[in-house]
What we know:
The protein has a single domain (3-141), classed as Alpha-Beta Plaits. The protein has eight helices and four strands, in the order βααβααβααβαα. A four-stranded antiparallel β-sheet has the order 2-3-1-4. It is α+β, with helices and mostly antiparallel strands and 151 residues long. The chain is globular and about 45 Å long. It has helices at residues 12-16, 20-30, 44-50, 60-68, 82-90, 103-107, 122-132, 146-149, and strands spanning 5-10, 33-40, 72-78, 116-118. It binds inosine-5'-diphosphate and magnesium ion (MG). Inosine-5'-diphosphate binds at residues 54, 59, 63, 93, 111-112, 114, 117, 120.
Amino acid sequence: MPRERTFVLLKPDAVHRGLVGTIVHRFERRGLKLVGMKAMRVSKGLAETYYAEHKGKPFFEGLVKYVTSSPVVAIVLEGDGAVAVVRRMMGKTNSAEAEPGTIRGDFGLQIGRNLIHGSDSTTSARREIDLFFKPEELLEYTRIDEAWLYE
Length: 151
Ligand code: IDP
Ligand code: MG
């Protein structure tokens, strides 16, 4: 039985600012297992489905433009409590208000350029993983340090 999975998207600003490795490094050090990762472009159709819950909000058009404007990195991480752990590591949606020590709080200044997405529930995670990854793109293996990450 795999542990909890979450979906992460490193947005175009993370790619352009050379922060992909820095951000992935934080997740790796935390003990989260990388089960899927790919650099890709998000089509307008995919962006609209992915962000469907925000349709009609004033920032929706800008948000779709932002994530489709340039390559992103889609990631699936696995580990105990992965959804909540990643949300805490990301910090508040508005980078300007995010605590130092969080990804948004260390690297961002604006809500509309907040570097990263992470699923907000296990239900969203399943939906987002299915949207971005084919089953065969997700890996199953045991990290060598799992014996010391989990009791
Ligand atoms: P989250 O990414 O922290 O879950 P949501 O409220 O789900 O935040 O919003 C999704 C994304 O929409 C945010 O990460 C951000 O990129 C964008 N967004 C949210 N609110 C605003 C806003 O007021 N202005 C511009 N962009 C926004
Ligand atoms: Mg959200």
